[in-house]
Amino acid sequence: MVQNWLVRTRHAVFLSAAVSVAACSGSTSESDFNVGGDDTGLEGDGGADGATDTGAGTDTGGGGDSGGGGDTGVGTDTGVATDTGVATDTGVATDTGVATDTGVATDTGVATDTGVVTDTGVVPDTGVVCGTLPADWTEAYVDKSSTNPSVGTKACPFRTILEGTSLATPGGVKTRTIFVKGGSSGAPFVYAETKPLDVKPGVVLQGEGSSTTKITEGDAGCPKSPGGSGGFHCAVFVQPGAIVQQFTITSTAGVGVVTDSAGISSAIPIVRAVEATGSKQDGVMTLGAAQVGPSIRANSNGRHGLNLIGAFGSVTVPGGDGANTFDGNTADGVHLEGGGISLTFSQGSASSNGGSGVALHSGGASGTVGKHSIDKLTARTNKASGLVVGRFTSLALRNSTLLANANHGLWFTQGVGNGIDLGGPSAGSAVVFSGATSGNRNGKSGFCIDNSGATASIFAAGDSWGVCAPPEVKITQCSAVTTYAEINYAPSATGGANPVSVSGCIVGP
Fold first, then answer.
1. Which own/partner contact pairs does 142-149 have at CB distance under 8 Å and 24+ positions apart?
2. Which of 123, 259, 320, 435 is least enclosed, having the fewest CB within 10 Å?
3. Are 360 and 383 in contact (CB under 8 A)?
């Protein structure tokens, strides 16, 4: 009985598995369960109810009867286990819907196409947003080392200064600044421009320092030349109301910096904190009114350091914020050749030039006098004179040193209507014309006057000489002096002896 119960129980389990397989296969017919075959097998096996046959144990009915046992319904085919419906095909796992196709991840919509990003000024592979430069711009940037597109913005600066100075300036004159990136003092950025830089009214061309930011220009003309002459070249042209500062500027074909003034106006061109050096001609040339300085260094040029040309206007060389130097030029340190130009020079040196330190040769008809003032000038070791004042020029000279020049400390030509004012103690001023040390004396005279006037007509009270009182020696002309004297003079037809008043004289260094 127990054995029959076990057989029936196994039979029930077998039927249950068969039903499960049928359910998985999606069929519900009775023949799929194979009930008739299983029943026959079980009846045969169970005919002898004894322990020796053990029906289900040996063949278990289903195994001997191929009806159910040979096919073994669930056991042999293993329905779910062998085919593994979901496991083998793995529906989602094998196809991996989203994972394999990766819809958004593989195509990456915006990231791959970057449509909007590129069109709005993002530099590919860097993410730098260049932006755009407004038509009515107020700031533009230049950096020759930039690898971004040349737009003129801070993120994407121009490569050349010429791109910046070529920008239009609509909307009238206003302050617009072009910032130019410099390198280091050991490795300055040199901007080798192909054309002169024309700095327009209201524009500030701003470098990072003369030792780090340099401009050079070759044979490329100039927007304007003195007298309209052709074949004139410059590196930088500065219009009225424009400013150029913090650069070294050189023209290998002409003038480093040319300033222009359209008339007597408050809007004058300004050049300051600039080293205008090594140009073929002048370091700086002014055409009319201008401000040159402070901290202007116009040295070692092929002609003059500063050349003042024009029929009108005032040129100022202010001091205080830094030294102005006009040294080592082939001709004069400062040269003036304009009938109506007036110079106000506040501080600086004009030394070791091939010509004179400062030469004021104002032209014009008799009675037309250029009036100039010079304060705190040092003019030493020039191959001509320290200071030259022409016959149509008047000068007020204060607190200056004129020593060791090859010709004269001061050479003055008396004309009609001009004069020389040396100040003196009452003006809080003194001029050093010579000194006790022979090496400080000028080659021909401390002070030489051509066409001198009446006795004691020129006041030099409180000034310094090699001896006190300095002797005054009559000559034929200053250009023909052969013997040194503290004061040489060539009198006019009506001139008297000893034209210089030297009361309160001092022996210089």
1. 142/178, 142/179, 142/180, 142/181, 142/191, 143/180, 143/181, 144/181, 144/189, 144/191, 145/181, 145/183, 145/189, 148/123, 149/123
2. 320
3. no
H or E, element range at 447: strand 445-452
For residue 129, CA distances in Å to 2, 167, 190 come to 89, 21, 27
Domain segments of the chain as ranges: 2-86
Read off the tokens for 228.
């309209």
Kindly report the pTM of this predicted structure: 0.75
Helix, strand or coil, per DSSP, at residue 150: coil
Provide the token pair at 458.
């020129």
Tokens of 400: 């200056």
- Cβ neighbours of residue 337 closer than 8 Å, sequence gap 6 or more: 307, 308, 309, 361, 362, 363
Give the best-scoring range by mean pLDDT among 126-135, 339-348, 437-446.
437-446
Count CA atoms within 13 Å of residue 484 on its CB side: 20
Question: Would the CA dihedral through 154, 158, 162, 165 be positive or negative?
Answer: negative
* Rounded Cα distance, 73 and 32, in Å: 9
DSSP output for 332-391: -SEEE--SS-EEEE-SEE--S-SS-SEEE----STT--EEEEEESEEEES-SS-SEEE-T
Q: Evaluate the omega torsion of the peptide bond into residue 470 and state whether it is cis, within 30 degrees of 0.
A: no
Q: DSSP label at 310?
A: -
Which residue has 């002014």 as its token pair? 286
321 pLDDT band (50/70/90 cuts)? Answer: confident
Q: Which two tokens stand for residue 34?
A: 């194979």
Report CA Rg, the chain: 51
- In 3D space, the residue among 342, 346, 448, 465 whose CA is nearest the CA of residue 397 turns out to be 346
User: What is the signed CA dihedral for 494, 497, 499, 501, rounded to 10 degrees?
Assistant: -150
φ, ψ (nearest 5 deg) of residue 39: -65, -45
The pair of three-digit structure tokens given for residue 162, joined into one six-digit string:
């010429």
Identify the residue with better confidence: 307 or 55. Answer: 307
- Residue (of 189, 185, 195, 187) closest to 164 by Cα position: 195
How many whole angstroms separate alpha carbon 471 and alpha carbon 500? 10
Q: Rounded to an integer, what is the distance from CA 388 to the centroid of its chain?
A: 40
Both ends of the chain: CA-CA distance in Å?
147
